[in-house]
Write a structure and sequence with these properties.
Belongs to the cytochrome P450 family. The protein is of the alpha+beta class. The protein contains 16 helices and 14 strands. Helix 5 runs antiparallel to helix 7, helix 9 crosses helix 11 and helix 14 packs across helix 16. The chain binds protoporphyrin IX containing FE.
């Protein structure tokens, strides 16, 4: 019989505040990679799991998607929230998005939206994204010489892009911003409407009401947008149910928003903290695609996903039973000394850069090309106009166990 000992270090995974303290987080992750790369975490209010911190192990798990399933526990939630989600699903009211599904169903549902994220669709969207990037850099110029970059710029720009892709009217954007933050703000009080599962359910119900109407509209009058593709998409010849349509809109709207926002804000902070890298990039803008990749590795906005074993197995020699779950610690994988030279150095020319910030395998981020395009477009607009930039206060990170990054980034700058 195996004895499972809970490491002090492994507590960071079940502690949202750890993600608001980079030094503490990375000290724990570095220790775990070296000493206990498949660590048992038994920390209420979460059900126990194994935290996997090595890059190679996370890739192996994500590659073996018939052994390691997304259902029934795709991400870390409290036992209470897991139970509520299960009850909602059984009542036909639960969200069941791409991240919750396994093949073969997952592949069919993913195919409905996939065309909208391919290179051809990205090229069609490039002009709109560049226009929005310019709009937000102009806004920085207008509100300067100081602003909170997160609240003024980085939360708005990706939301506008994703809402444009979905085909929603601009007047609805502020409402969507609020709902997304309530759904995804996790443990941050600042974003919460309320903290009880019932209050969280109310946010979901608001999403439901908005998007159900959208499905009806797009079925009656299909247009050339992603919302129409979802509303009229079919699996095995059948239209998606209302709740499956809703789930699709929700995953696109939420996954496409805060993630990119955190990468842009964290990327800007990394450039401020590393002025040599900022000068290097300004002096050679052809480095931009590599710099974008490095910003995504550096910030790793999605902290984790989980998988559950479909059969008894092992990871790095640690036995794992059928039904037990593993936590894929992307933040740790992206600082793995065995994969990255000087992983704690922010290097805008890093090449190769095999980070796992977009995951790996069949669930690999559907919007990766869009996220890269947005970040590229924003910094391509900003940097040639930027004469100087510095912090104007202490940056603040979100407390979260899922998607997070900077919630405030006060900056002082001069722009052309
Ligand atoms: C820097 C920004 C982003 C990051 C770091 C990110 C990260 C991720 C990660 C880690 C996953 C799970 C991968 C896995 O399980 O292997 C994922 C899935 C997904 N992402 Fe992103 N994402 C970003 C931007 C976007 C954007 C802009 C969209 C646009 C809609 C998007 C849509 C999705 C969707 C739909 C999935 C589910 C895919 C599936 O399960 O098949 N993401 N993303």
């Amino acid at each position: 019989m195996t004895t499972r000992t809970m490491d002090e270090a492994a507590k960071v995974f079940a502690d949202p505040s750890a993600y608001a303290d980079d030094d503490r987080l990375h000290a724990a992750l570095t220790w775990l990679r070296a000493n206990n790369p498949v660590a048992w975490v038994d920390q209420p209010p979460y059900r126990p799991f194994f935290a996997v911190t090595k890059h190679a192990d996370i890739m192996d798990i994500e590659r073996a998607n018939d052994l390691w399933l997304s259902e029934p526990r795709p991400l870390l939630a409290t036992a209470e929230a897991d139970d509520l989600a299960k009850a909602q699903l059984e009542a036909g009211m639960g969200l069941r998005t791409l991240i919750h599904m396994d093949d073969p169903h997952h592949r069919k549902v993913r195919a409905i939206g996939a065309d909208w994220f391919r290179p051809k669709a990205m090229r069609a969207l490039q002009g709109r994204v560049d226009e929005l990037a310019k709009h937000y850099v102009d806004k920085m110029a207008e509100v300067g010489p100081e602003c909170d970059f997160v609240t003024e710029v980085s939360v708005n720009f990706p939301l506008y892009v994703i809402m444009s892709l979905l085909g929603l009217p601009e007047s609805d954007f502020p409402r969507m911003l609020q709902l997304t933050q309530e759904l995804f703000g996790g443990d941050e009080e600042e974003y919460q409407r309320g903290s009880t599962p019932e209050e969280k359910l109310q946010t979901l119900m608001d999403f439901f009401a908005y998007f159900n109407k959208l499905t009806q509209d797009r079925r009656a009058n299909p247009t050339d947008d992603l919302a129409s593709a979802i509303a009229n998409g079919r699996v095995d010849g059948e239209l998606l149910s209302d709740v499956d349509c809703l789930s699709y809109y929700v995953i696109v709207a939420t996954a496409g928003h805060d993630t990119t926002s955190h990468a842009i804000a964290g990327g800007l902070r990394a450039l401020i903290d590393n002025p040599d890298q900022l000068d290097r990039l300004k002096g050679d803008m052809s480095l931009m695609p590599l710099a974008v990749e490095e910003m995504i590795r550096w910030t790793t906005p999605v902290k984790e996903f989980m998988r559950t074993a479909a059969a008894d197995t092992e990871v790095r020699g640690v036995p794992i039973k059928e039904g037990e779950s593993v936590y894929l610690a992307y933040v740790s994988a992206n600082r793995d000394e065995e994969v990255f030279d000087d992983p704690f150095t922010f290097d805008v020319g890093r090449d190769p850069n095999k980070h796992l910030a977009f995951g790996y395998g069949v669930h690999f981020c559907l919007g990766a090309a869009l996220a890269r395009m947005e970040i590229n477009s924003f910094f391509t607009e900003l940097l040639p106009r930027l004469d100087s930039i510095e912090l104007a206060g202490a940056p603040e990170l979100t407390s979260t166990v899922f998607v997070g990054g900077l919630k405030h980034l006060p900056i002082r700058y001069s722009l052309r």
